[in-house]
Design goal:
This protein is an alpha+beta fold and 147 residues long. It has five helices and five strands, in the order βαααβββαβα.
């Protein structure tokens, strides 16, 4: 596995993987499925690029990108792992942990002290992965069912 980074001007290189992540959430989101069904890459890209400083770390085989981690710093100095995705066949082999490590390393280098990760309901299997990296639940945010 080769790791690198891409410039924000090349963010569309991860669009196909972001779409796979969106579909992953559609399958698991339960009552909030419609929220993920309505998401689109152009809107998400604008959200990421507006008012955030970004680091986009990639994993691949030299010719294609098979995974990414987007780390962000917002206008208030808050750090966030905005998005992380790795092709299913590559999971459980350390690549996801390395992507996360590199994203967190960048946030540390930038002096960010407060870092969050939001895990969507229905994606609870990701919690153990993030807990291994030192993240623990701080709060539970409940939303009223749509409809």
């Amino acid at each position: 596995m080769e790791y690198g980074r891409i410039e924000t001007t090349d963010i569309d290189l991860i669009a196909h993987l972001w779409e796979k992540q969106r579909l992953h959430h559609v399958e698991r989101a339960g009552v909030f499925r419609g929220v993920f069904e309505k998401l689109d890459w152009e809107k998400r890209k604008r959200e990421l690029l507006d008012n955030n400083k970004l680091e986009i770390v990639t994993a691949g085989n030299g010719t294609e990108i098979n995974g990414y981690c987007v780390a962000a710093i917002d206008g208030m100095g808050m750090g966030e792992i905005e998005s992380l995705y790795l092709e299913p066949g590559l999971r459980g082999k350390g690549a996801g942990a390395e992507l996360l490590r590199r994203g967190l390393e960048w946030l540390d280098k930038e002096g960010v002290k407060d870092i969050k990760i939001i895990v969507a309901a229905g994606n609870e299997e990701a919690l153990a992965f993030y807990e291994k990296a030192g993240f623990v639940p701080r709060a539970y945010v409940l939303k009223r069912k749509p409809g």
